[in-house]
Amino acid sequence: VALLHALVSLGFGSLILCHVDHRLRGRASSGDALFVQRLAGKLGLRCVVFKSEVGKLAAGKKLSLETAARDARFECFASAAQANGCETIFLAHHADDQVETFLFNLFRGAGALGLGGMRTETTREIGGLSLQVVRPLLGVWRAEIDEYIAAHKLKFREDATNAGLGNTRSKMRHQVIPMIEQTLGREVRRAVWKTAEILRAQSDFLQSSIGIPGDELSVPELRALPDALQEVLLREWLKLKAVPDIGYELIQSIRGLLATDSARAKVNLPGGRHVRRRAKKLFVE
Amino acid sequence: VALLHALVSLGFGSLILCHVDHRLRGRASSGDALFVQRLAGKLGLRCVVFKSEVGKLAAGKKLSLETAARDARFECFASAAQANGCETIFLAHHADDQVETFLFNLFRGAGALGLGGMRTETTREIGGLSLQVVRPLLGVWRAEIDEYIAAHKLKFREDATNAGLGNTRSKMRHQVIPMIEQTLGREVRRAVWKTAEILRAQSDFLQSSIGIPGDELSVPELRALPDALQEVLLREWLKLKAVPDIGYELIQSIRGLLATDSARAKVNLPGGRHVRRRAKKLFVE
């Protein structure tokens, strides 16, 4: 709501509100949709509401609910953008989101490249469409947004999944981070936020050092790379192969295939696929 | 004690036990020294005990107690090594130490390069002496060491600062990490440990990309570097200048001097020194 208000105040006239109902939250969810539709009516903006059966999607593609929901959202955004000739998507992630994402990825072992966090500006290819994704609030703290909302007397609606403590992200926000700050007697969010900034710069540099990986990877060339670049290259390669939830364990298993004395020649991937080593090449099948 | 037992069992005969009394812990501290001396006697090893007034050192050099204590320990180790013709120092840091150090540095805003953690093997120059520093237990968990101690019925003595909850590191060990694991309902130490591994590989690669910085830095050359390398280069440069406790804020302040429109030409360093920009160069004075 705060982002929308700010964008409208800044003169962005032709905005389209896009709401995705994940069909996971019961009644709260249709309430969200209604709220978004009314808000759009009040501001004279177009509004698109999608329904996406995320539970089924996640089960079908063997993805986590969180990953399936994110993919579904981006597909809806892309479809709304294509239908309306939009090139830019604004998302309202804020600085606390960035910190929670960092700690979430750290504690689940996503590896260093998963820690760089979200970007203020990035380009995303979705279904053949190239969209600019902008997060203007990524450096703004939740408390500052609350002040903005209060100052402008904006009506808002708490996301049902945020208020409950049903998932890891909520626990991070409402329990873990406050407990850490209370126990250590210091504010830690800013330090974590800055670390995410630095790691993103590092991973940008590492990615620019390797270029775009090909369809198959040469084992001797991989072996010759420093450890840090092996990890980056394998991760980029798996991303291009649309492998979801790429974590440290998976990367290490694949690096295990590079050892000259490795008897193993196959590593399982989610969704029944695998990475295979044959004739000094790695490929996905 | 476990490390010592393991080294003796492996046939390392000519070990010298080195204990540094930081004069901070009152009676517990002389008890520690006595314990170490008796242990050495029992094993037939030489033993050196140093006394170091860390409180005064820290105040005099304007360092944190932790930094002053670490510097003092390494100076004692170097002096014992030189007197006895040793080339290698064994330290008993374990995997939990590594995880606590990572979180400690993350939450105090040390920046990404502070997160790589300790190394299993490294070389350290102390007072003109080049010493190999080995931490054989860095991949071994505290619980595994406890099992080893129990299995071999070793007598041990808990470090007085470990048992109390007087400092940040103890809080991390006894409160923060258990709380995180309990709240999230999962083990997080392994994930953090692995992240430290990856970040160390990354920072090794980044450091190898910049080489050794000179006495003064060229502002135009710094400007031309990617963000990640600017940070690494400045951090390495400050390390060579023996600047203690290098954090993200300091690096960012110095990067502020690089802006073409920067009116500021000076950044303060601990201990009354500063970084100055003049004639397109950065130098410490």
Strand order of the largest sheet of chain A: 6-9-8-7
Beta percentage of chain A is 5-15%
Residues in helices of chain A, as a percent range: 40-55%
Q: How would you describe the oligomerization state of the chains in this entry?
A: homodimer
Distance between the termini of chain A: 45 Å
Largest interface: A-B, 40 and 39 residues
Q: Could you give a short account of the major beta sheet of chain A?
A: 4 strands, antiparallel
**Rg of chain A, Å, rounded:** 21 Å
What's the average pLDDT of chain A? 85
Would you list the SSEs of chain A in sequence order as H and E?
HEHEHHEHEEHHHHEHHHEEE
Work out the number of β strands of chain A. Answer: 9
Which shape of chain A, going by the Cα principal axes? globular
The computed structural class of chain A is alpha/beta
Number of helical segments of chain A?
Answer: 12
Q: Report low-confidence residues of chain A grouped into runs of 5 or more.
A: none
Keywords for this structure?
three-stranded mixed beta sheet; alpha/beta; four-stranded antiparallel beta sheet; 12 helices; 285 residues
